[in-house]
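check this one:
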Amino acid sequence: MVAEVDKVEKSSLETPDKTDGATVSGRTLKDLIDGFSEYGPQDAIVSFVKNGSVTLNYHGFLSEIRNVAASLLSQGINKGDNVVFFAPNSASWIISALATIYTGATVVPIDSQQNDDVIKHIIEDSSAGWIFTDDKGSKRLEKILPKSGAKAKSKHRIVRLDDDEVAESWKKISAASKEKAEDINPQLLKLTPTDIAVLFYTSGTTGTPKGVPLSHTNMLLQLDEVISKIDLLKPKDRVMLPLPLFHVYPLNTGLMAPLLMGLTIVLPRSLTGPEIMRALNDGKVTVIVGVPRLLRSLYQAIESKFHKNEIIGAGFDAAINYCLGMDRFFNLRPGKTLFAPVRKKFGPTLRLFTCGGAPLASELAYKIRAIGWEIGVGYGLTETAPLVTFRVPEDRDLEGVGQAIKGVKVRIDPLAEPDERLDKDAGEIVVTGPNVFAGYKNLPELTKEVFTADGWFRTGDLGVMKHGKLHVIGRASSTIVMEGGEKIQPEDVEDRIAKQPAIAEIGLLQVDHKLVALVMPDMKVIGDQDVRAALASALKVASSNLASYLQVTNFAITKDTLPRTNLGKIKRHELRARYDQAVAEEKQGKGASKAKSAESLDSNDQILVEDPAAAACLKWLKERFPEQEIRLDTSPQLDLNIDSLEWMHLTLELVEHTGVELTGEAVSRVTTVRELLSEIVASSEGGEGAVSPIDDPDHYLTAEQREFVQPLTGWRIGAAETLYNFTMMVMSPFRVQAVHPENIKDVPQVIFVPNHASYIDAFVIAAALPKERVKNTQWAGWTGIAFGNPVFSFLSRLSRVIPIEAKQSIFSSLALSVSVLKQGNNLVWFPEAERTLDGRLLPFKQGIGLLLEKSDVKAVPVYLDGTRQALAPGAFFPTYVPIRVIFGEPATGSQLAKEGKGKEAPERIANALQQRVLALSKEAVNKVPEQESKS
């Protein structure tokens, strides 16, 4: 790449010899679709559904596209017609959209988060007659679209993508075709590269969105000249597409590019943490098409796992910083080895992220690289289809966005009014090339404004060229670009919010990649009310019909008017300093709003918070956000700063803490903690997303976790034998004796339920059991000890210990335990979940009750007599005293449930076992006759 300055002080960026020959050779997207026949048996789309996944190979994929296309043609679709798509990602969406393009018609994707007025405008402006949607979309359209005729029916043809059984479904329309798919070609009008393939609507916020028509040439340029020729994607790649297809980046770069190469597209069921992880692991994903906000959420999910333990978290941070330094200063990637176990656990096949839609912070890019993954970054706009430049993974200039793609020229035009805060060579980025659109639909005046006199497209972005690479440094306009790729015109949103009586002035800005606000309250309206509560309520009301990315996630209160120019416009470059100052001042008076006490809750709220799942969620929230006052009317967005993408890793934590998995739709309904608890309760009672780790343990386990229950193989068998012999030698001075071994002699599989008084308890049980039973026994071990360092982790794996997090991940712990039992193995489970410090038996947790409630495996209570004296809490050296392991009589869960006290079966089972172990302890005090022991 070279940088030049011409006579009018315009710098340009282009690749030498790359503008010539960059054509699509008269091809259209229809030619791309016909090419699918070359990939016949290969997987085209893997769609994850509630219980598993559905796979469609290229042969079936192409057949479906041609069937739908034939049907559309026979039912009146013509070349140039506009067809709206108003639904979430799905295989049926993709098939129907490509079929539309195949006929010569134009796809018009609509963001489902737009308000009704915007949706109505897009449908009317595009003159679309056909609309492909789902159940939720069709219900909205009933209210939005005008009715006509005697029975007041919509004049639009509504086709359902989510239900094959309704009369107007995409499947039935396809089947109703009078023409055979193989006879489709003679019907089709000849498509040309200049025909419009897709019509996007962009930057509407609360105002009128602009129609951006993109031709086949616009779309195909990057596919032909970039994606398939820069060695970014590999022949065996499986590409996960979590981003909505109503944006050009996921549609063209994320969908069309992999399909051009015959790769597999993986569609997660929803954008929640558990569903992303399920698709990533079960779909064997190698590439994720993402935006910065998605990458940040994924990184935070990994980071939060390590920071559950302060020491481990500090070690993780140190390792990341070490890898950052080695990468930045020495071009070395130690993270590829150091963090290999992390990558294996997170996604064993994942190798690459492609990122676009918004600027990717270099610090985040370095962290992703530090873990050992690769990142490819693109820059562009909807109007450029979208790629303008691309930074390949090998490019270490993480501040820049790479070089112009082949066939595209980029130039930096000087600003009309120079800004002293910017680099002297900075200016507005302007672009020309076959990828640039011809102009906005029905907006000729606006089209003139966005093109220069010599025909270059004005991006509205500020940039500078360094060493032949483009660096984007901001916006020439006030537009805010979020990490999710959404563009926000702040004036539109501010005007809407400012209509609330409680708000005198408001200024929007982006802080830590989130939309926040600086608000001046109208005290005459608020009066004696709590100021923050009144403003939060006003913001909630104002945002009720706005898309999620337009909703303010946090705000600071100022008593002073906002900084403005003489013309009354907000001085946006001063907002951040004022916002930070207001936040600091507000913290000094923190605690003005008081939470409801338990006594002040109404009866419905009291019932809600007493539900076990809701109580677990509330407890988790207080631990997760210790600096916040958690109330039932706390807003996850406004008070806890949780945006739509951050829910992704938070839903993973919710599963671990409450055992309840919320669907994306359930999350979208949550605006307060009260509503979150209600969704948790509904799901735990069998509603959306409800699933039990007892009934379906695999749902909670990653591929790596499942390895804990697999038999040892290879050299590990010999190593485990050596470890066993060493353990027996270490235990021999304690003269371990088994008492009542006849209680377990004829029971092939049991759950041992011992008291926990010392760190040597597990070794003592192993010494008291016959060797053959030890081989078929697994041990529940607290991760803080058993997996607290690499040495302990290695030994625990050889001993077949399963990791238990009694306070953090009880449901994955239960799932592992159930898997152990399903393998036919014995299990040692310490029901107190912690070691007693004074020798007295602690209450038994209900986890053992949950395990036994639906299992036929018998439980054997065990009392360990003498282990506390042998190695007491705080002691570093053992005292060699005799130790006895007293085995009680085995019992089933149903027997124990009848025997114990409590409201629910798991509680009764746990209490019954506690009483049995307590009885064994009294037997030990009475000095039962010692039986012959195997040690």
Q: What stands out?
A: The mean pLDDT is 84. The domain at 1-28+216-438+458-486 is CATH 3.40.50.12780 (Rossmann fold).
